[in-house]
Amino acid sequence: MTRAELDKSPADVAAMFDSIAGRYDLLNDVLSLGQDRQWRRAAVRAVEAYSGELVLDLAAGTGTSSQALTGNGARVIACDFSQGMLREGARQRGGAVSGGVACVAGDALELPFEDATFDAVTISFGLRNVQDTDRALREMHRVAKPGGRVVICEFSHIPVRAADRVYSGYLMAALPRIAGLFSDNTAAYEYLSESIMDWPDQAGLAARMQRAGWTRVAWRNLTMGVVALHRGYRPEE
Ligand SMILES: C[S@@+](CC[C@H](N)C(=O)[O-])C[C@H]1O[C@@H](n2cnc3c(N)ncnc32)[C@H](O)[C@@H]1O
């Protein structure tokens, strides 16, 4: 069984996602009780991409969110460093370039794009898995156009202590067991729970975005804070 540790070694993270790619989307639906679809719709609405715009969907995995971003005519680059996840996505969509989405292999810590390329940059459930959060936030800022926006959709923390305790219990005890019924890599789902518990809260992530150069940073909670959507802008020059 392949899992990453909280040091998030890139080789371990990529190998772990390669190993779960085939059942990744199914497990998301099961473990979130279908809530993930609502979270993705909220992220797509927050990006608000229009015809003529170019969007980077970073750590796109199988591209579950990428296709929806093209709804108003935007073009989307789906970038990830797990070949297994990209391959599974291409299989599902019938090709690595299809329906306004182009898959590109690349590392969030050294993006294979010129400065100021994208109107919007978004990352869903990816930033938590990147080894160096601050460097990834700076890379996303570098490839966004001046005035461009970022939307981060990521697990977060429930501000009500009693509810957070119940949720933490689900993460640490139930989630890996349920995952074990559908996946032969339970350890990958233990990593999922541990990495969520270890992740900064809403204000902590907002502060890191600001340090990376993003301005007008704001967030809103989804499902009481199980997930948070953060948005920011690269300042105009
Ligand atoms: C939980 S999946 C999220 C996939 C997709 N965005 C979604 O919403 O379902 C996390 C993804 O982050 C990718 N990832 C982690 N570190 C990365 C890095 N340094 N560069 C590119 N992708 C990375 C993994 O390969 C994996 O596909």
Automatic annotation (TrEMBL):
Top-level class of the enzyme under EC nomenclature: transferase
Record key words, sorted: Menaquinone biosynthesis, Methyltransferase, S-adenosyl-L-methionine, Transferase
Top-level taxonomic group: Bacteria
Pathway given in the UniProt record: Quinol/quinone metabolism; menaquinone biosynthesis; menaquinol from 1,4-dihydroxy-2-naphthoate: step 2/2
SUPFAM superfamilies noted in UniProt: S-adenosyl-L-methionine-dependent methyltransferases
Functional description taken from the UniProt entry: Methyltransferase required for the conversion of demethylmenaquinol (DMKH2) to menaquinol (MKH2).
Catalytic activity annotation: a 2-demethylmenaquinol + S-adenosyl-L-methionine = a menaquinol + S-adenosyl-L-homocysteine + H(+)
GO molecular function, one term: demethylmenaquinone methyltransferase activity
Membrane-spanning residues: none
Encoding gene, per UniProt annotation: menG
NCBIfam families the UniProt entry points to: MenG_MenH_UbiE (TIGR01934), PRK00216.1-2 (NF001241)
Species of the source: Nocardiopsis endophytica
Record bears the keyword Transferase: yes
Protein name: Demethylmenaquinone methyltransferase
PANTHER family: 2-METHOXY-6-POLYPRENYL-1,4-BENZOQUINOL METHYLASE, MITOCHONDRIAL, METHYLTRANSFERASE
EC numbers: 2.1.1.163
Residues bound to S-adenosyl-L-methionine: T62, D80, D107, A108, S124
